[in-house]
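User: Run a structure prediction on this.
Assistant: Running it now.
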Amino acid sequence: MKDENFNDNQMQDENNRHEIIQKIRESADKEKIPESLNPENLDRLLEQGKNSKGRNGKWRDAAADFAFRYWKTAGVAAACVILVVAAVNLMPLMNLNYRSENKADSAQSMDTSSEAAKQDTGAEDSAASGGDMGAEPKDSKDMAKADEAAPEKKSEDKETAEGYIAGSSYEELYEQIYTETENARKEWEQKRMADTGGYVEESGGSSASKNDAAASTEAAVAEDTAGTAAGYAAGGETDFSSTNVRTEGVDEGDIVKTDGSYIYTLTGSGTLRIVSADGGSMSVVGQTSLDDLTDSIQEMYVDGNTLCVVTSGYDSGLEWQGDETYMVNSRDFIRLYTYDITDKSKITLKGMVEQDGGYYSTRKVGNYVYLLSQFYPVYREDAEEAQPRLYVPSVNNELLDSSDVLYPAVPQMENGQLVISSVNLEKPDKIQESKSLIGASGRCYVSRESIYIFGEDYRGEEMRTRIVRFSYKDGEIQARAAGEVNGSINDTFSMDEYDGYLRVVATRYKDGWWGGSMSNSLYVLDDKLKMTGKVEDLAKGEQIYSARFMGNTGYFVTYRQMDPLFSVDLSDPADPKILGELKITGFSEYLHFYGENKLLGIGWETDPDTGERKGLKLSMFDISNPADVKEIDKMVLKNVDFCQAMEDYRSILIDPEENILGFSAGVYDRNYYELQGYYGVFTYNPEEGFQKLLYQSISKWMDSSGDELACVRGIYIGNTFYLCGSSGISAFDREKEYENCGNLEW
């Protein structure tokens, strides 16, 4: 077991840097502000920009921002130039607003069965081809025509998951989205008031629209035994890392990818670069940009000579209402841009598709990409039954047929919708199939065969989690089953599909969802989501922090002040059994199988008496005997306050075959209250335990928000490790103790 600081020498360097910055701030106070930038002259400056030919609104905004910043901090820029010139070994980093897909919610078992019909709602949407990544976005004025373009369709009766009903008309959906959800919310609030005997704050869960909620929705991910599988370049000569995914065989997008010969990077500003990488020798061979669009970059996929970029955005426009009245229409959307990168120097757009709703998540299996978005209808007072475009999502500018929108037979309080669409990359400008689920605003878990949508239901005596299962294959999406379990699900690693069964671990709140005694349960559900077996009342007073399943064995961690690691035998779905319980200090928030009979835990060391955190903890468990799991080694990084690995597992570089583990972490400076960033690379062997290979400071390229920690990625190609960011890439020789062997800046 090792206790050590992340890097004492670099911590001292950071303190020296802060002292220099403080002196700069003090000198800035003495700087004289130019008279032209005094507040009374700012309006005149902006007016001049407004009247300048060839200048647009973006220029005026930039001028205003510059004037304001200069007036507030005059003199700092000149001093900062000295800092930049004096900086040594500038490491490139990425500044990207990137939502992590992590923590889940939810939880007892109901019934269900069946199929929903497949309906192809893909409308053609041509996209220009060429070297520029941009394509003209659809104008929201086109949406005003959607009501006429999608006449009322009386749908055939379609079989769907028990407990959910396919809409038969837009009028029916209007009633469900507004009236039924509002009644459910009022009923719940009355019950909650009666149960608590106190004032109940109005819940925003029903009334619809809440576009802001879509932005804060945490997304989800996929299946059982996953990990980072090493890839092989053409000819199988060079091994390389790949994105750490939840489900092996189900790819997930990220902001950095490699194919063993090239490194692909995306920045928040919308720039895609293709970098040829041969050890420390690197060069940009292709580049394109989304600068002219308002899209926000989310992630990308690379498969052979096809590259896909997922973006999200917000569109608004005016609609004439008559009597000199206009209504502002606004909507969130996600887009999938597909490019041909056969010629790396000429990135060519092949097609683009668009779907209503805020970004939720995406997956890629084979030649199909699956888009998931969170759609919120407008407020009821702004919606009319005859305007379904205001409460039914569109894909490629065409409304979903009412039969492709499912609503719960027992109305829920939420009227947001989770929209799932498939895109065949051979037809990148078309949506193949879409489904929308009303009342779904929780999480998703994607196995190799199913997409599970799950979210909490607060009504009743205790919290439950509703689960809906969709099958997906070759772009076809069908509702198959629905059910529920008691309790709240921590994240998507707490669910796992294996041999037709869904295994779930959940934390229950038996005295009401708002408090009371906690306990934990394990449930096994069949493919109809009917209860098959269960184990309840585990680790009372604690809650689940992490879980991982492999075949017929499951492991999960609960925590209060000690960390019990439970192992479970799932070989008999009707009779799951707890095999063992290991109690250690601290707790693991992320578990990953690390070679044969080993389980890696990343979490926090804590004081067993007070629960106070003492540092970041790496644990290695021997699971050769699941009934007697042992912690065989641990390393505690004492001064780490934040670890991106526990926020977004895709950000972790982990490859047991190469025996490499890497992630970014943050340390708060107690003197200046700023977050300092590092990237650490580790290895493990039974004789020496955990060993550090690289501690690289990245705080020089971070702003005060610390967002950079979420955006740095570490990858390897052969014997070279690359640290990738928005300003460039740094290379390190793995055979020479991670000596810096090359830098590429842009």
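Confidence is low (pLDDT under 50) at residues 42-146, 152-157, 200-225.
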